TrEMBL record:
Protein name: HTH-type transcriptional repressor of iron proteins A
Transcription listed as a keyword: yes
PROSITE patterns, sorted: HTH_ARAC_FAMILY_1, HTH_ARAC_FAMILY_2
Keyword DNA-binding: yes
Record domain HTH araC/xylS-type: where: 174-275
Record SUPFAM superfamilies: Homeodomain-like, Regulatory protein AraC
Xref: Pfam families: AraC_binding (PF02311), HTH_18 (PF12833)
Molecular functions per Gene Ontology: DNA-binding transcription factor activity; sequence-specific DNA binding
InterPro entries: AraC-bd (IPR003313), AraC_XylS_family_regulators (IPR050204), Homeodomain-like_sf (IPR009057), HTH-like (IPR037923), HTH_AraC (IPR018060), HTH_AraC-typ_CS (IPR018062)
Keyword field: Activator, DNA-binding, Transcription, Transcription regulation
Organism: Acinetobacter bouvetii
SMART domains cross-referenced by the UniProt entry: HTH_ARAC
Length: 277
């Protein structure tokens, strides 16, 4: 058992046998995650303590043994729900990874898997996740890792997942917001201007601001930071130096980059790249 009084720790792993799947093992007591998003889904298991987090506009508490679910691109926060903090492990499968598995459950074209529940109490699934997380950190056993990973996600999707329609069936205002998001994602390093973005989708700047936050949960400038962080993760994995990644992604300097990185991922860029499996 980990004693939170020993301080906070964070270990990021990249599981190469599963297409670089990100796995986090961490203990936090005073760390507070600002509103942020992940490109992938977050599937976590609380090992000790309890976590409090905002998701889908509501505050949730996940105690020891419960499973936390955050959808890809979903705005959320994170902090301790108890004085002693919380210790947890999580994986972050990409939408492509999840969609591949979900094809066996959701047959309708143009849909994405979605977890409506933020916190799940399922002792059997928690036990399986615990086994999976332990296995992912061990050498070799590639076939077993891949099999347990897919079967765990398949169970999670079949029991707790739903499918939601994607872009083509969205209302017009939402489609315009998605287009602006795509522009920001395509060139996150650029200094975008609100008036130019609004002109592209034929909205006034004020209307775009209101609609953007309504549909995404964050204003455009905050999403731009998220897209800059995502691009930087890809560059770090390609072997770029931290300072170079910061510069190429539009951050004013490395300290500014590290500050945003830690507020969103709970670790520094160096900690993120410290462990490669």
């Amino acid at each position: 058992m980990h004693d939170n009084r020993l301080g906070e720790f964070v270990n990021y792993h990249h599981v190469q046998e599963l297409d670089g799947l990100e796995m986090l093992k961490a203990s936090y007591q005073h760390t507070q995650f600002s509103k942020h998003t992940h490109e992938g889904y977050c599937i976590g298991l609380i090992d000790e303590g309890a976590q409090s987090f905002l998701r889908t506009g509501s505050q949730h508490i996940a105690p020891q043994g419960d499973i936390i679910l955050v959808n890809a691109d979903e705005v959320h926060t994170g902090s301790s729900a108890v004085e002693t903090g919380w210790c947890y492990r999580a994986i972050y499968p990409t939408p492509e990874m999840v969609q591949d598995i979900s094809q066996d459950f959701f047959h309708e074209a143009g849909t994405m898997p979605w977890f409506p529940q933020a916190v799940v109490h399922d002792e059997g699934l928690a036990e399986q996740l615990n086994l999976l997380f332990d296995l992912l950190l061990q050498p070799k056993n590639i076939l077993f890792k891949q099999s347990l990973y897919i079967s765990t996600l398949a169970y999670l999707l079949s029991r707790y997942g739903q499918s939601v329609k994607i872009l083509k069936d969205l209302p017009e205002a939402h489609r315009k917001v998605v287009l602006v998001q795509e522009i920001l994602a395509a060139e996150p390093e650029k200094e975008h201007q609100l008036a130019e973005l609004a002109a592209v989708v034929d909205m006034s700047p004020w209307h775009l601001l209101r609609q953007f936050k309504k549909f995404t949960g964050l204003p455009p400038h905050a999403w731009l930071v998220q897209f800059r962080l995502r691009k930087s993760l890809a560059l770090l994995k390609q072997g770029y130096e931290i300072a170079t990644a910061a510069q190429l992604c539009g951050f004013s300097d490395q300290s500014h980059y590290t500050r945003h990185f830690k507020k969103a991922l709970g670790c520094t860029p160096a900690q993120y790249m410290a462990h490669k499996i």
